[in-house]
Amino acid sequence: KHMGTPLDLEKAEIALADAREELAKATVGLRQAEIALEHVQMRSPIDGIVLERLVNPDETTHNDQIVIKLGALETVLMAAKVTEEKIYSMQLGLSAEISFPAFPAETFQGKVFKIDPNIDPVTRTFTSYVEINNPDFRLKPGLSGFARIHRTAKDVPAVPSVAIINPSGDRASVFVVDNSGHANLRKVGLGIVVNAMTEVTGGLKEGEKVVTVGQLYLQENDKVHSTSKSNIAK
């Protein structure tokens, strides 16, 4: 039978004492952690309601881990798809009327809050975000619906939509006929479109004449002949 030396016994007693000391420290640390856990509070940086819980009770977490998703639902945003033909007439602040299959007998009022300038390459549509008041929290994330955006306007300068060259880009322009009957290309700002008339937000004055037929074949300062009234209207 192997017997240890006095030196081995002394080393073992020292190791045992160290282990007991570490155990005592760990026990104190555990108790302190338990006390701290009893008083811990999770505070949200915003006022809102819980949308989703991402961890289960007693599950171990780590720093910077998202455990709960919160949302402020007093107002909600609806992502409305807009076709290429209509996107250039969209403007921030336009009013909208929204309906949801979940509330078939009701309509909700909103306004255009944001317009995404990027087109979806698959659907060829743009996304306009409509802000809707939701004071009673009945509108939940994920609901589908239909938005009718009111693009009507009164007492604004407008020209026939056919007169506009490059209407969907930032180089929209028209040929303006001067007093001598010559056509000059002029860049214009565009607004909403209603009944084949497009609002002009800049670049033209009331009463100026624009070319509505054959303008794609014109060159700067070409002579034109007026066959009908195509003045900027108000």
Secondary structure topology:
Blueprint lengths: L5 H34 L9 E5 L14 E4 L3 E9 H4 L7 E6 L2 E13 L9 E9 L12 E4 L8 E3 L12 E5 L4 E6 L1 E6 L2 E6 L6 E2 L11 E2 L11
Antiparallel strand pairs: 1-2, 3-6, 4-5, 4-7, 5-6, 8-12, 9-10, 9-13, 10-14, 11-12
Annotation, overall tally of beta strands: 14
* SS summary, helix count: 2
What's the rounded overall pLDDT mean?
Answer: 83
CATH class bucket of the largest domain: Mainly Beta
Overall shape: elongated
Rg from C-alpha positions?
A: 35 Å
Q: How would you characterize the largest beta sheet?
A: 5 strands, antiparallel
What proportion strand? 25-35%
| Sequence of strands across the biggest β-sheet | 3-6-5-4-7
CA(first)-CA(last) distance:
114 Å
Q: What percent of residues adopt helix (DSSP H or I)? A: 10-25%
At CATH's second level, what is the architecture of the largest domain?
A: Beta Barrel
